[in-house]
Amino acid sequence: MRNAPVAPLAIVRLGTALRAMGKAPEAVNVIATFRQQQEAGILKDPLRRDWVPMLQYEHALALKDAGKRPEAVALFEAIAKAFPDRPEAVNATWRVGQCRREEAAEQLAAARAAAAAPGATPDQGAAARKTIADTAAALEKIIASF
Predict the structure, then answer these.
(1) CA distances (Å), origin 141, targets 27, 104, 138
(2) Of 139, 138, 116, 143, nearest to 129 (Cα)?
(3) What is the DSSP letter of 86?
(4) How far lies 116's CA from each of 32, 104, 133, 136, 144, in Å?
(5) Residue 39 and residue 27: Cα distance in Å, rounded?
């Protein structure tokens, strides 16, 4: 099956299905293995090379869903750079912003919890407020970049 002409499309569908079932780590493994074994050959095929950004995008989504946000961001950025004229590039750019926003939201939640923690020292409260201010500024930069 992996050598079938439509295998890249099947792998994309399989990755989507695995993610929908909450099996993102499995989707990461399946897609990564397929890409490692087949992507170079697909890129050389003029009839199938346009499927590569779709395959990479699904891989990046699986990485994101599996909690591997830095790896997902790196792949999303690579897609946007390598395939700027493809719809996946636009979506990948948006996903980079989404990943950064999610990371900032987690930092904000942790800082707010630290600031509100009973028994927090004044230094801990000040550090938490600084983190909140810095993260809010980072979010503004993320928003401004779009």
Answers:
(1) 32, 11, 5
(2) 116
(3) S
(4) 42, 18, 15, 18, 30
(5) 16
pTM score: 0.86
HSE-up (13 A, CA, CB side) for residue 3: 0
Query: pLDDT (tens digit, 0 to 9) for every residue of the chain, 146 residues total?
Result: 667 889 999 999 999 999 999 999 999 999 999 999 999 999 999 999 999 999 999 999 999 999 999 999 999 999 999 999 999 999 999 999 999 989 988 988 888 888 888 888 888 888 888 988 888 888 888 777 76
Residue at token pair 């980072």: 138
Amino acid at 60: A
Helix or strand (DSSP H, E) at 139: helix 122-144
